[in-house]
Specification:
heterodimer; A: mainly alpha; 26 helices; B: 2 domains; five-stranded mixed β-barrel; 8 helices; about 25% helix
Chain lengths: ~525, ~375
C-alpha cells in the first residue's frame, strides 16, 4: 500500500523499477516460446512463405526487357510512339548489339515470349531475327578485312581493346575513343567466355563489332590519337577509309529478317515494358491492356478473366450455400443424437475424406453423364425423353454438385462442433417461456449456431474459390474456375507473371471478403467449437 | 406417505416414468400442491426429483398417470402452452440477447405490444433490483445477478406456477443464503405457486412451506420443514435431513407410546415407536445430536442412559461438537450450545448420555 503512494515508478524489492524487472522475467518466457515454434516457423518461411512471396513478386517483376535490351531501352527513350513512325537508325543499331548478345545467350526467345503476351507476333520476330543477327554487319567486317587482314586477327582486337594490366578488361582509352565498339566488344568477350569457355585471344569478334567500329570511326575520326603503336596506325588507316565504305542500314537488315520491325506498335510495346516493374500482368488479369497509348480494354472476344473471376465467385457462393442448406440439418441431427448413433453417422460424414478425390469426382461423372445412371433412371421412369437427356456434367451444374459433395464435410464439422456446445437447456428455456418449436429454434438456437455457419462458410468458400482438380475434371468449358486458368499459365503457356497476377488477385479477393465478413459478422463470432 | 390426489393446484396422480422401459425412475408419484404454496422437492441425485419437475414443465412425458394443473390434465399440452415459468440450474439466459431482450422474449412470443413489453420488463427488473442492467449481456453479469435475471424472466409473463431447478447451485454460500431469502420473499409476496428442486437440505428447510423428500423414485415424506426435521417418518428421511445419530437394535417392548429398544450391544434405550408396532422387530433409532443430554439433572429420573467415552471435542464457535464412543460405535455426535455455563468435555472422559423418549425415534430398519 505504501509503495503505491510513493512518487515515481514502483520499485521491485531489489530497487530496480518493477516494469523493468517484470520485462526481464517475461523475456525468458518469450524466448522459450520462440524457441519452441522456431523449427516450424523456419520450415514455413522456407517452404511456404518464401516461395509464395517469390511467386507473387513475379506478377509485377519485369526486368527481362531492360536486362536483355539494355542499349535499346536507352535509345528508345527519345523515341515518341505518338508520331506513329518506326524509330531511328540508332535504335536499330542498338537493337543489333543487344540482340546478338541475347541470341548468343539464347535469351532472346524468352523475351520474345514475354512481349508476345502483350503484342502477338513479337515472339516469331525475335526468333527469326535471332537466327540472323550474327550476320548483321558482315559487310563491314569484309571491308575492314579487305583494308587490312589484321582486323581478322583476335590478337589485333585484344591489343586494341584490352587494358594493359588485364586482358579481360577494356582499356579506358578504347572506351573513351570507341565507346560503342568497347561496349559491344566487352559483351562479346564476356559472352563467349560464359557460353563456350573461349577466350577473346582465339575468337574473331562478331560482325556487329565491326559495325560498331565503323560507327565509332565515323563519329570520331580522330580516334587514333588515343592509341599508340600498331593499334594507332590501324585505327587511323581505318578512320581514313570508313567514309568510303559501302553502307547498309541496320533497319534494312531487321526488315529483311522480319517486316514487323517497321511497325511502331512493336517498338511501342518494347518501350511500354521497359520499366523493371510492370502493372501489365495485373491489367491483363482484368482484361485490360497496357498499350503505348495508355490503358485500354481488350477486344471483347479476348476478355476472359473477369468472366472467370465472376464465375468463380458465383460458383463458390453457390457451393457454399448448398453446403449450408445440406449440412445444417445433418449437423443439427448429429449434435442432438445420443453419442453412439452420432458417432456412427459421423463416420458416414467423414467417409468421403477416406476416398480418393479422383474416385469421387469420377463417380459423379458416371452418375451425371448423359448416358449415366441418373439420366438412365429419369428416362426409365419417363421423366425425361431418351432423345434429350439432361446435360448435367461438364458444365456449371456438374461442378457445383461434385464440389458441394466434396466440401460438405468442411461445413458439417465446424457446425457440429459449435452445435455440440449449445446446451439443450436454452431451447427448453425458450419453450418454457412460451416459444413454439420454430420460434425457439429460430430465435434462440439458430443465433447461437451462427458462429459455426460462419466458420463453415469461410472454410468452404476459401477451399472452393481455389479448387482445381474437380472443376478441371467435370467443369467442361462453362464450369471451370480461375484456378484452372492459373494452372494453365503455370504449366502450359508458361506465363508465370500472369499466373502470379491472377493468383494475387484471387488472394486479395479472399482477404477482402474475409475483411467484409469480419465487419458484418465479426470474426470473433467464428468458432470451430 | 403418498396421499391421494386432492383438489390442489398442481396434482400428480399415480405418475410413473421410465426412460428405458426396464426401470422406473419415478414410481407411483402422488402429490398435491396447493395454490400459492412453496413446495421443495429434496433428494439425492438420481432420486427422480428433477424428472418430476421436467414432467411438470413438459420436457418429459409421464409413462403412466396424469399431471393436472389447475384441475386440467396437461399431459398432452406442449411446454410452451403450459404457461409455467422456469428457472434453470445454469440460468439459461440467452447469451446473444441483452438482459432486457431476454426478459422481453416471453412477452414477445405472447405478442404483447412494445410499450406494454417495456413496462413489464422494467417492472420485472426493478422487482429483482436490477433496474440499471437492461442493456447488459448476461456474460457481463455476476452469478448472483444472472440468477436474479433468470428469476425475473421466469416471472415477467406472470405465470401462476414457477419451477426452479437447483437455481442456487452455482452461487457461493453467502450469496446463496441471501438469494434464498429473496426468492421466498418474492414468491410469497406475488402469491405464486413455486416448485423448487434442490439437493441442499438447508435450502429446503429454510425456504419451503412443504418439503417432499424423494428417494428411489418415491416421495419418502411430505411435510413442513419443522415436522420433517423433528419427526422424520423413516430412517432415510432422518438420515438425509440434518445431522443424525443412528443406533440399531430390536424392540424389546412397547408400552404407553414408549418403546424400549435393546441395542445390538445389549444396552437398553428409550425411544418413540414410529415405524415399529410390536416387540421383536428390528429397528433403527434416530436421535438428533442436539437432543442428547449428558447432564443427569436434566433427564427424567427413570430415563435409560448409555455409557459414553469422549473421543474428540471440536470447537465450532457457536456450538461444541463432541464425538463419542457409544454402544460400540465411535461416530456418535452430540452438539452443545456455547453458553457460559456449558461444560467442555475432554477426550477420554467417561460420561453418561440420555434423552427424552420423544426425541428418539424408532424407525424402520
Amino acid at each position: 500500500m505504501s509503495d503505491a503512494s510513493q512518487a515515481g515508478p514502483v520499485l521491485a524489492a531489489d530497487g530496480t523499477p518493477l516494469k523493468k524487472s517484470l520485462q526481464r522475467a517475461l523475456r525468458a518466457q518469450k524466448l522459450r516460446a520462440l524457441a519452441l515454434i522456431a523449427p516450424l516457423l523456419i520450415f514455413i518461411l522456407v517452404t511456404f512463405v518464401g516461395p509464395i512471396a517469390d511467386m507473387l513478386f513475379r506478377s509485377v517483376e519485369n526486368a527481362i526487357v531492360s536486362e536483355t535490351l539494355p542499349r535499346t531501352v536507352v535509345a528508345l527513350e527519345d523515341w515518341d510512339h505518338e508520331a506513329g513512325e518506326a524509330p531511328s537508325e540508332d535504335v536499330y543499331r542498338m537493337m543489333t548489339y543487344d540482340m546478338v548478345t541475347a541470341a548468343e545467350l539464347k535469351t532472346h526467345t524468352r523475351l520474345g515470349s514475354r512481349l508476345n503476351y502483350e503484342t502477338t507476333g513479337i515472339s516469331s520476330m525475335f526468333r527469326k531475327t535471332g537466327r540472323r543477327v550474327d550476320d548483321f554487319g558482315e559487310e563491314y567486317t569484309d571491308q575492314f578485312v579487305a583494308l587490312n587482314p589484321a582486323w581478322e586477327e583476335p590478337a589485333t582486337w585484344v591489343a586494341l581493346m584490352a587494358a594493359s594490366t588485364d586482358p579481360f578488361a577494356i582499356s579506358p582509352a578504347a572506351e573513351q575513343a570507341l565507346p560503342e565498339t568497347a561496349s559491344i566488344y566487352a559483351d562479346f568477350a564476356k559472352t563467349i567466355a560464359d557460353t563456350k569457355g573461349d577466350s577473346v585471344t582465339e575468337e574473331e569478334p562478331w560482325h556487329p563489332v565491326y559495325l560498331a567500329l565503323y560507327t565509332d570511326l565515323i563519329a570520331n575520326p580522330d580516334a587514333a590519337s588515343a592509341f599508340s603503336g600498331e593499334s594507332a596506325a590501324l585505327i587511323s588507316a581505318a578512320a581514313a577509309a570508313v567514309p568510303t565504305f559501302e553502307v547498309t542500314t541496320t533497319k534494312d537488315l531487321f526488315v529483311k529478317a522480319d517486316k514487323g520491325w517497321t511497325d511502331p506498335e512493336v517498338w511501342g510495346t518494347i518501350k511500354a515494358f521497359t520499366p523493371e516493374y510492370t502493372s501489365g500482368y495485373f491489367l491483363a488479369s482484368v482484361d485490360l491492356k497496357k498499350s503505348p497509348d495508355g490503358i485500354e480494354s481488350l477486344p471483347e472476344d479476348r476478355q476472359i478473366y473477369m468472366l472467370l473471376f465472376k464465375r468463380t465467385l458465383f460458383m463458390s457462393l453457390m457451393i457454399m450455400g448448398s453446403c449450408v442448406i445440406l449440412g445444417y440439418p445433418i449437423a443439427f441431427l448429429l449434435a442432438n443424437l445420443p453419442m453412439r448413433t452420432s458417432n456412427l453417422l459421423m463416420i458416414l460424414v467423414l467417409l468421403p475424406f477416406w476416398t480418393s478425390l479422383l474416385v469421387r469426382t469420377s463417380a459423379w461423372k458416371i452418375l451425371l453423364q448423359q448416358q449415366g445412371v441418373i439420366n438412365d433412371i429419369l428416362v426409365w421412369i419417363g421423366l425425361v425423353d431418351d432423345a434429350d437427356r439432361l446435360v448435367m456434367i461438364n458444365n456449371q451444374f456438374g461442378t457445383i454438385v461434385a464440389m458441394t459433395h466434396i466440401l460438405l464435410p468442411f461445413m458439417i464439422l465446424p457446425l457440429y462442433s459449435v452445435m455440440k456446445t449449445i446446451p439443450p437447456y436454452y431451447v427448453r428455456a425458450a419453450k418454457s417461456l412460451g416459444a413454439t418449436n420454430w420460434v425457439a429454434f429460430w430465435r434462440v438456437y439458430f443465433p447461437q449456431s451462427v458462429p459455426g455457419i460462419g466458420a463453415g462458410c469461410i472454410l468452404v468458400f476459401i477451399l472452393a474459390i481455389g479448387y482445381y482438380i474437380t472443376p478441371e475434371l467435370v467443369g467442361g468449358t462453362t464450369g471451370t474456375f480461375i484456378s484452372n486458368r492459373i494452372a494453365y499459365h503455370i504449366s502450359s503457356s508458361l506465363n508465370w507473371g500472369l499466373a502470379a497476377a491472377l493468383g494475387t488477385i484471387l488472394l486479395a479477393v479472399v482477404l477482402i471478403l474475409y475483411w467484409v465478413y469480419d465487419k458484418i459478422v465479426g470474426i470473433d463470432n467464428v468458432s470451430l467449437g | 406417505m403418498s396421499t391421494a390426489p386432492e383438489n390442489g393446484f398442481v396434482v400428480f396422480d399415480r405418475v410413473q416414468k421410465s426412460y428405458d422401459g426396464e426401470t422406473l425412475v419415478v414410481k407411483d408419484l402422488n402429490l398435491s400442491i396447493g395454490k400459492g404454496e412453496f413446495l421443495t422437492m429434496l433428494g439425492p441425485s438420481g432420486s427422480g426429483k428433477t424428472t418430476c419437475l421436467m414432467m411438470l414443465a413438459g420436457f418429459e412425458t409421464a409413462t403412466h398417470g396424469e399431471i393436472l394443473l389447475d384441475g386440467k390434465p396437461i399431459n398432452n399440452i406442449p411446454p410452451h402452452k403450459r404457461g409455467i415459468g422456469m428457472v434453470f440450474q445454469n440460468y439459461a439466459l440467452f447469451p446473444h440477447m441483452t438482459v432486457a431482450e431476454n426478459l422481453a422474449f416471453p412477452l414477445e412470443v405472447r405478442k404483447l405490444g412494445k410499450s406494454e413489453r417495456e413496462a413489464k420488463v422494467k417492472r420485472a427488473l426493478e422487482m429483482v433490483q436490477m433496474g440499471d442492467f437492461g442493456g447488459r449481456r448476461p456474460t457481463q453479469l455476476s452469478g448472483g445477478q444472472q440468477q436474479r435475471i433468470a428469476l425475473a424472466r421466469a416471472l415477467v409473463f406472470e405465470p401462476e406456477l414457477v419451477l426452479m431447478d437447483e437455481p442456487l447451485g452455482a452461487l457461493d454460500k453467502q450469496l446463496r443464503e441471501h438469494m434464498q431469502f429473496e426468492i421466498t420473499n418474492l414468491a410469497h409476496s406475488l402469491g405464486i405457486t413455486t416448485v423448487y428442486v434442490t439437493h441442499d437440505q438447508t435450502e429446503a428447510l429454510t425456504m419451503s412451506d412443504h418439503v417432499a423428500v424423494f428417494d428411489d423414485g418415491r416421495i419418502q415424506q411430505l411435510a413442513p420443514p419443522d415436522l420433517l426435521y423433528e419427526k422424520p417418518e423413516n430412517s432415510f428421511v432422518a438420515q438425509f435431513i440434518g445431522e443424525n445419530n443412528t443406533l440399531t437394535g430390536v424392540v424389546k417392548e412397547i408400552r404407553e407410546g414408549r418403546a424400549i429398544v435393546q441395542l445390538d450391544g445389549g444396552e437398553l434405550i428409550d425411544a418413540m415407536p414410529v415405524n415399529v408396532s410390536k416387540a421383536g422387530e428390528r429397528t433403527k433409532v434416530s436421535i438428533r445430536p442436539e437432543r442428547v443430554e449428558f447432564n443427569k439433572d436434566r433427564l427424567s429420573p427413570d430415563a435409560l442412559t448409555l455409557k459414553a467415552e469422549v473421543m474428540e471435542f471440536i470447537y465450532m464457535g457457536d456450538i461444541f461438537r463432541t464425538r463419542l464412543r457409544v454402544a460400540g460405535r465411535d461416530d456418535f455426535i452430540i452438539k452443545t450450545r456455547n453458553a457460559p455455563d456449558q461444560r467442555r468435555l475432554k477426550p477420554g472422559e467417561m460420561i453418561e448420555i440420555g434423552w427424552l423418549a420423544e426425541d428418539c425415534r424408532a424407525l424402520d430398519a
